[in-house]
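debug: dumping io for the single-chain case to check the tokenizer round-trip. Nothing else runs in this session.
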Amino acid sequence: MNTIISDIDKVLNKISLGETQISEEFIEQFGEDIKQSLRDWSTPRESKDFSLRFSNIGKPLRKLWYEKRNPSDKPIEPSLSLKFLYGHMLEHLVVLLVRLSGNTVSDQQKEVTINGIKGHLDCKINNKVVDVKSASRFAFTKFQKGLISEDDPFGYIAQLSAYEHAESSEGGYFLVINKESGELCVYEPEELDKPDVPILINNVVSSLDSESKPTKCFPTVAEGKKGNMKIDKNCNYCEFKKDCYQDSNNGKGLRAFQYSKGLTFLETVKSEPKVEEVYEW
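debug: decoded output
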């Protein structure tokens, strides 16, 4: 895996110079992968009920607890729906580039199971478990600099670890494409950063079955120097923040203020901000 990026760069240079062509076999395979992405994207799930999957076992417990009890019947925002689609397409493009570079791809979308929880491998590359991700510039930088273990709100490392455990494999990788620039990077998490997956799954199932809410996902953050506290950036777009913080501000709930940097949600207001308060959000 250490040479994947340079291998891909070499084949891209050859294509741009007209020194090589893509075989019909690879073109057909890529076309089939894209068609399957469209099918999956446009086919509604049989059940909208909450379910644990490899892709969400590493998410914050409190968020999962709310998701289980409050399944959304609202459609996904159109822009987010499109992001999902072209993200999957980009990931198939990365797999195509790996094939073109002479590396071996196997076990695409193989279904695996641990303790009744299912997941689907993106693929193996040269017999190593690989999770292919398309990422924003910010998220890409976290992978590129090895910071994802310190800030992993979507549970990517737990997801990769689950694939490894299911395949009795070690040394899995993330292969990531920057959706904005087209850059690629490879990241191999440290073994110490990976959870014991069966224990993690048992803990998650137990917590979600309990009527007691898990602790809040992220600590609050100081806003200014006068005692005001805001919710963590990862909570800003959470659909459950009103319920989650309903006891804040002496039982009044979150208060939202329109700062120049954007809407800020205050969990504690000690000093009234000198900006507009927003009541409908």
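debug: round-trip ok. Residues 132 and 175 are 5 Å apart (CA to CA).
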